[in-house]
Amino acid sequence: MKLAGRKDQGGNPKGDGTVTCIGCHTATPDGEHVAFVDHWPWSIALANVEKETVGDVPPYLTPGGAEALNQSWLGAPTFLSPAHFSAGDRLLLTSYGRSSGQVWDGQTWSDTPASRLAWFNLETPVPTGPVNGTQLAMAEGTAYGFLARNGDPRGAMLPAWSHDGNTVLYVSTNAGKDGRLATGSADLYTVPFNNKAGGDASPVPGASDPAYCEYYPSYSPDDQLIAMNRTPDGQDMYYNPSSEVFVLPAKGGTPARLAANDPPACTGVKSPGIHNSWAKWSPEVTTAGDRTYYWVIFSSSRDGYTIQKLPQKKASQLYVAGVVVTSAGEILTYPGIYVWNQAKDTSNHTPAWEVIEIPPADVPK
């Protein structure tokens, strides 16, 4: 894939614009485009995923928006719901910066603060062309800006945006590393979006236990539940084999461990130890009688496949599992279902699950 305007950390064009690596990603709310983190130094790009225009830059992404996203050390992107993705209201939210070290602003190296939560205006008219670090800094507040997180002195990573637009769920951590998590501590916090201003940060009860690292949060489509990873505190969170997936009420409560963490007993494989990780919700919720039905999709290395180019690495595959909430608030979980049409010699993670409209077939009369 080639996208015009890609740059390296020094602000120089990245050759012919070829994208090096499509990393952490998410679909835009309309399902037509994908936002993803490109390879080092981890800036963000947007591209079309529709058949006829694969790789094209979205028409609403202005040069100013693209320039802002070309900054280094950005993390996994997230969007609001489709109700908040139209002309004049196209914002992307991600993390910005590292927990330590220095960053190049186009002119000088300077210390960087702990990673922050940042919004980006994809339609911003400023700047309108190639810029240096000083000009981009002047665009703060227009092209991009930061959410206040009063009461949380740690770094902020991996935000999830509630579908009603009111709340940002994120990982409060001392282990931010170039847009991802490394070794340390992590808990889930929320902060009001407050029209891009942020506000007071609050730990999520049940997802801020100091004995564990809680991370990779995801809101259910009705904003009633949170899915998250959990590992013992102080471990390396990046592709940790000890990670497992839990679900809890969005306002906090007792986490429910997914039954889908456990492979069938006949396999002889047990969890933890198989990289159960990074759950995403289906885009729709169904209520029948006194129960509400959800689906989650997550990755796991339980089948023992290896990556073709890295045979020493275990390859994760995708699994789907049901989650049911009763009228009494009890969370019920069920075994996982393997997504059958996956390449077994690659590692599959962070699916973007969207409703896709398939046009009617052109059947001859």
What does this molecule look like?
The protein is built from two helices and 27 strands. The longest helix has 7 residues, at 63-69. The strands form nine sheets. Strands 21, 22, 23, 26 and 27 form a five-stranded antiparallel beta sheet that branches. The two termini are 39 Å apart. A hairpin with a 4-residue loop joins strand 26 (317-326) and strand 27. It is mainly beta and 365 residues long.
In short:
The chain contains two helices and 27 strands. It is mostly beta strands and 365 residues long.
Helix and strand arrangement:
Elements: E1 25-27, E2 33-37, E3 44-48, H1 63-69, E4 91-96, E5 102-104, E6 109-111, E7 116-121, H2 133-138, E8 144-146, E9 148-150, E10 155-161, E11 167-173, E12 176-177, E13 180-181, E14 186-192, E15 198-200, E16 202-203, E17 212-219, E18 225-232, E19 244-249, E20 256-257, E21 277-281, E22 286-288, E23 291-300, E24 306-307, E25 310-314, E26 317-326, E27 331-338
Parallel strand pairs: 9-15
Antiparallel strand pairs: 1-2, 2-3, 4-7, 5-6, 7-8, 10-11, 11-14, 12-13, 14-16, 17-18, 18-19, 19-20, 21-23, 22-23, 23-26, 24-25, 26-27
Descriptive key words:
mainly beta; 5-stranded antiparallel beta sheet; 4-stranded antiparallel beta sheet
Write the H/E string, N to C. EEEHEEEEHEEEEEEEEEEEEEEEEEEEE
Mean pLDDT across every amino acid position: 84
Number of E-state strands: 27
Q: Point out poorly predicted stretches.
A: none
The number of helices is 2
